[in-house]
TrEMBL record:
Claim: Phosphoprotein is one of the keywords in the record: no
Keywords on record: Metal-binding, Oxidoreductase, Zinc
UniProt-recorded name of the protein: L-iditol 2-dehydrogenase
PANTHER family (alphabetical): L-THREONINE 3-DEHYDROGENASE
Segments crossing the lipid bilayer: none
SMART domains registered for this protein in UniProt: PKS_ER (SM00829)
Domain called Enoyl reductase (ER): residue spans: 7-334
Recorded family membership: Belongs to the zinc-containing alcohol dehydrogenase family.
């Protein structure tokens, strides 16, 4: 079968490999759609640890083709989405329900072969069934959506509150929709590209503006009369961390979601954070949110087609992952 392999840092190729086998407890999934994520570009550049060589791809959806021994709950032929993050279940974090902080976390498409391939073998407990008639491209959004749901859980948006979202990539545009579904009265997206601001307004944002054209902090404070009740940082750059903290209302929640490069420092004003009791809440990965993400995708409550800006075959993956996102690009989907 064909697979896209990260052979070494900055070297990725599509080549023929042995079709994987479903071992006991595993499913063999024929991949129908897979998403390219910003982390794939980080892994390619060596900025995020991987078990090289590896077949990449941690956001995917497909059909169960072979059910391994000792698997219950699957008969074959189901459309499934797969939670790529495999917790050990036994460490201190896992035994306290903090599976995203597992000390022995492994991940499909990162430390074991993933979904940028025609087939992938996955532990059956990582797979969640989707309606058979669901568009598999939508199913491939379950993984990023599951991470967003963890952030939305941490944000604790109450109906009627105001939410500011920094960064209008696929994550920010999913967060816009989730904030609306959570009942936010104002959803403000701050991002530089005009096309993304236009998309956000079509997806339910009440305001969208360019942080380079005006004072983002003043604008949010003005729109919300004092600061957003919830701020979700989805850009992963020092500026948005700094400005986001300052546009959070006194007593509000600031959710740290964007990944800044390791070692990056951001100056903060501890006095202001203290007297305003800004509650900084990091949200990392998808602890127990993948099945809810699958259910939400299946419900049709989210607009996902608008987020797909390009569809490619396996032969184009290395070029896309190896280059910076194009202007206007939101999500690139692979159909193997
Ligand atoms: P992305 O496409 O890179 O989106 C981030 C966007 O932020 C950029 O495209 C850019 O859009 C915008 N941005 C950059 N600088 C900005 C600034 N100064 N002010 C406002 N916006 C700015 O990435 P994504 O896939 O949507 O993911 C967003 C972040 O979430 C990434 O850091 C990713 O690594 C992280 N992430 C975290 C988790 C987790 O579990 N915590 C899971 C998945 C992803 P414009 O060009 O329009 O400004
Ligand atoms: Zn663990």
């Amino acid at each position: 079968m064909k697979a896209v392999r990260l052979e070494s840092i900055a070297s990725m190729t599509m080549r023929s490999v042995e079709k994987p086998v479903a071992r006991p407890g595993e499913l063999l999934v024929r991949v129908l759609a897979a998403g390219i994520c910003g982390s794939d570009r980080h892994m390619y550049k060596g900025e995020y640890p991987t078990a090289i060589p590896v077949t990449m791809g941690h956001e995917f959806c497909g059909i169960v083709e072979v059910v391994g021994e000792e698997v219950t709950g699957f008969t074959g032929g189901e459309l499934v989405t797969v939670d790529p993050n495999i917790a050990c279940g036994r460490c201190h974090a896992c035994t306290r329900g903090r599976v995203n902080l597992c000390e022995g976390l492994t991940a499909i498409g990162v430390t074991r072969d993933g979904g940028f391939a025609e087939y992938v073998a996955v532990p059956c407990r990582q797979a969640f069934t989707l309606p058979a008639d669901l568009n598999p491209v939508h199913g491939a959004f379950s993984e990023p959506l599951a991470c967003c749901l963890h952030a939305i859980d941490k944000a604790e948006i109450r109906a009627g509150e105001s939410v500011a979202i920094l960064g209008g990539g696929v994550i920010g545009l999913l967060m816009v929709q989730l904030a609306r579904l959570a009942g936010a009265s104002q959803v403000i997206l701050i991002t530089r590209q005009l096309s993304r601001r236009q998309t956000a307004l079509r997806l339910g944002a009440t305001h969208a503006f360019d942080p380079t054209a005006s004072d983002a902090i003043a604008a949010v404070r003005d729109i919300t009369h004092g600061g957003a009740d919830v701020v979700i940082e989805c850009a992963g750059v020092p500026e948005t961390l700094q400005t986001g903290l300052q546009m959070t209302r006194r007593g509000g929640n600031f959710v740290l979601f964007g990944v800044t490069p390791r070692g990056v420092e951001v100056p903060v004003l501890p006095f202001d954070l203290l007297v305003n009791e800004v509650d900084i809440r990091p949200a990392y990965l998808n602890p127990f949110t993948h099945s809810r993400a699958a259910a939400l995708v299946a419900s049709g409550a989210l607009e996902l087609d608008m987020l797909v800006t390009k569809t490619i075959g396996l032969e184009e993956v290395a070029e896309v992952v190896g280059s910076a996102p194009l202007p206007g690009e939101i999500k690139v989907i692979i159909r193997p």
